Each structure stands twice: as structure tokens, then as C-alpha cells.
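Q: What structure does this chain adopt?
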Amino acid sequence: MQRLGAIHRLRPLILAGVLFIAATPASAATSHAKIWTALGNDLGCGVAIHPPGKPPTQVVCSDRTIPPPPHGVGYGDPGFVFLGAHGHPILARTTQDSFE
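A:
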């Protein structure tokens, strides 16, 4: 739960990164992957899938120490958390298909 608290405190920084990525014009030499790491490369984050033509509203982060959601919620691998500008972090089971 300590790791989840750190993620909760990092939420403004992570969301600022998403807004920066969305506002930065891409060049031909730049990767289009919107994935980064934090907390000494222990936490991997990326822009969550969102409807085409709409701005991103969530990021999804993964780490082996993030607890799984309650039993029976979702499918896929545990260790993911969705973060938005408002509300609480949402623990999830997911796959790489959740990243943009």
C-alpha cells in the first residue's frame, strides 16, 4: 500500500507529463510510444487507450508491487493502476492492449 500512496502523490506529475506529451509536436526522429518510467524505473506508465479524436484522460501504470483488484474484477495480469485527473486510483487487471 506504500507504493500506491507514492503513486497517488505522483499523480499530478504523471498527468502533467501526459499533457506535455499531448501538446508536444512529434518529429520524424521521435518515437510515438507514449510510455515512460518513474520511481527509479520501477514504475512503468503510459497513456491509456482513449477514443480517437479525444484527448487522453487517464494514464495506466504498472509495477509488480501494485496489489491486484478485488477477486473477480477484470482479466489479465495484476499490478496495474489507472490514474485520472479526478477521483481515486483504480486497481486493475489488464494487458498491454490498455496502452495507447
